[in-house]
Amino acid sequence: MAILTTEGLTKDFGGLRAVDSVTVEMEEGKLTSVIGPNGAGKTTFFNLITGLIKPDSGRILFKGEEITHLPIHKIVRKGISRSFQIINLFNELTLFENVWLGVQSQQGHGSELFADIDRFRSIREETHRIIEEMGLAGKEEIPVKLLSYGDRRILEIALSLTAKPSLLLLDEPTSGLVSEDRKRISALMKKLSSELTLIVVEHDMDVVLSISDHIVVMHQGKILAQGSPVEIRGNEKVQEAYLGGEHLWTS
Amino acid sequence: MASKTKGNRWFFHPLWLVFILFLLFPFIPYIGRYISLGTEVLLWSLFALGFNILLGYTGLSSFGHGAFFGIGAYAAGIFFLRVHKGLWIPLLMSILIAGFFAALVGLLVAKKRGIYFALITIAVSQVFYFVAFRWEELTGGETGLSGIDRVNIGLTPLLNIKLSVPIYYYYFVLLIFILCTLLIWKIVHSPFGKVLQAIRENEIRARYLGYNTAVYKWAAFTISGLFAGLAGGLYTFLINSAFPFVLDWTQSGNVVMMTLLGGGTVNFFGPILGAAIFIVSRDLLSAYWESWMLIYGLIFVFVILFIPSGILGVIGGKKQTILR
Amino acid sequence: MTEFFSFAMNGLVLGLIFAVVALGFTLILGVMQVINFTHGVLFAFGAYFAFSLQKYTGFWLALVIAPLLVGLIGLILERLVIHRTYGGNPLFGLLLTFGLATALEELIRILWGKPGYSVAAPRFAAGSLDLGFMFYSKYRLLLAALAILIILLVWLFLEKSPYGAIIKAGASDSEMVMALGKNLPRMRTFVFTMGSILAGVAGVIAAPIWSVRPTMGTFILMPAFVIVVLGGIGSFWGSVIAGLIVGMSTSISVMFWARISDIIPYVLMGIILLLRPRGLMGEKSVLEV
Description:
The complex is a heterotrimer.
Chain A: E1 2-13, E2 16-27, E3 31-35, H1 42-50, E4 57-62, E5 65-66, H2 72-78, E6 80-83, H3 95-106, H4 121-133, H5 149-161, E7 167-171, H6 179-192, E8 197-201, H7 205-211, E9 214-219, E10 222-227, H8 229-233, H9 236-243
Parallel strand pairs in A: 3-8, 3-9, 6-7, 7-8
Antiparallel strand pairs in A: 1-2, 1-4, 4-5, 9-10
Helix pairs in contact in A: 3-4, 3-5
Chain B: H1 14-24, H2 35-57, H3 66-82, H4 88-109, H5 114-134, H6 136-139, E1 145-146, E2 152-153, E3 161-162, H7 166-188, H8 191-208, H9 213-239, E4 241-242, H10 249-262, H11 270-288, H12 292-306, H13 310-315
Antiparallel strand pairs in B: 1-4, 2-3
Helix pairs in contact in B: 1-7, 2-7, 2-8, 2-9, 2-10, 2-11, 3-4, 3-5, 3-9, 4-9, 8-9, 10-11, 11-12
Chain C: H1 2-32, H2 38-80, H3 90-112, E1 128-130, E2 135-137, H4 138-160, H5 162-172, H6 174-180, H7 184-206, H8 216-231, H9 236-256, H10 264-275
Antiparallel strand pairs in C: 1-2
Helix pairs in contact in C: 1-4, 1-5, 1-7, 1-8, 1-9, 2-3, 2-7, 2-8, 4-5, 4-7, 5-6, 8-9, 8-10
């Protein structure tokens, strides 16, 4: 069953066609990796789906409902959440406050002008739970800007989870991490894939091949190929697209 | 700016210290004589504290909030002279009418950012200035309104307070100041206040957490406009008149300056400190040198260049301003 | 009928002065994202320098020297203080220039005194010209011609010279300029100086038709804001066209309902912003992020 469908999704930036008539279906419950060289349009694709930018043409359907022109906060409420390629946190606030904000929103609060924050026990408990589950316990009071890069990457994902999405988009979640942290995130993604649908943009092919149920290859704004990891590995077009540039896998 | 009200230490909370300081002000030798100056510090602190909800907490730099101060000032004056020679009603009108226009302007600018936001707020405040200047029947034009007296308040014959006496008016304003400060404290330490800070830090992320940030920005804009209006009304009753200069865009610059100077971007109390320093030094400077505006302008420059996180920021060891 | 023409011509002249001022303002705003409050007081300095120089040098020489002096002031300001605010919150640039403008305006008062002066038009342009259907001030015609010439020179520079082309591009998209890797600080200094010169020259040519007062800077600055927002930040034609619109509408509205003439520019701005949020000719830029 397709949880997310795009039809002829197109976006131009000046003279550049960043996303070119992309028609794709993402299956529910699966972990789909989106791969492709830099500039292939992957992040723009995410931006379009989540409402950060509006397409020039095409449609986006989530669980059968059209979400093409909805604003970001409404799309999030429908159940789509994302993490960012460049870490996008509330830097001056503490780790706890960052997660708290996500949980607060998910539980339907934020408009209370005169309530005391400390009174919201359910938000606090859920915040602690997420922090512990993500292995960030003990660092709650540290301002985010002082956290290590690895911790911030994990917080980046943790924050996207606070919305309790049914579809999670992760944009290069392991970018810049050492192999130990990469494995940590891989394991996390594998675990999450049993609970929700994931779409992951990744460059690390080891990670991609080990966790993906399905792979979509983008190139110059178009979908070059898609299929299972085995199929993609053997796909000549894909290999051709990468010959001049990055070597994704060794054999 | 975390909320650090630990239960057993509430007694030494800086809020109470500030209130006590203002309570005792008239009794301090030498400087306690300048009651009206103290009153002015109080109402500008009120203005700046409310304004800091927008500037320090939400990170939005409105350069036109002087307009709402001025609208509040005129609303009080016009209502006093034309409708009801009282105190509470005109002040209520200050709040409501300033708030109304703030809500209206807020709709215009809620989705704008950066330069456009600042420019439009400047431009809008100019419109109000010209309206006050030209609509003579309503506002008295260039000469403004006068004869806006402070009536007696209280439940006669039990309690009859002659607010025309400066020190009584000072304590009246102090009472309002205390109530409003507590209100603003509550607001910035509420779930709503937290979202405002999130918007300041990273508006896009806030949206991705499900918050309709445009509404929050509009609300912050309007709320700060309400307090600006109240301060304006109090000012009208302080000087018993309303002139177009209350709508001059330098008022907008002044409140931004006070908020920054004291350290409003890093500390709740920054605006109060900034207002006190600003008002007092302006008074001193203008008394001693006719061309004091030169120093005034240079101080602006100095603060922006060297202590953008304000005095409390410097004391607190925070070199970076969190203004975005 | 002649009255209408008179107002219309005045409006055109006013609009041209506005356009020159707005051009400098919009370039600085577009390239450096600085809301330059000193632009008004630099305009005033132009007028005051002209006033002081004319006694010794006559009109034409003052027209050349005064703007250069103003440009020098602008250069000093930019190199000393203003450049430190680039890239940060636009509020800082605004406040900094606001503080500078306040101090500089007071400096004018200290140097030249508080009361206003009147500057006489040069003798060859004094009096009125018989246009057939009406008489019109010779000086204003000269003013219009000079303003058009200046606008033309700026246009030539932005369109035909390579350096100007970069600046023109940078005014509507500063990110692109950084990608071009030119010497950015020097270019910014250049733009600020150029903008200051434009403000100064506008002040010089406007001086004979307005009274030269310390507050004349404020008088020109607010419309400059409006014109730039109305025309689109960083846009050459936006500033020119919006300047003319504002000038004409202000002047003509004086004919019909003088009281609202001050507000007309803002009303126009409000309408345009509702219809086209980036202004008449504004382009997509980083200013909205």
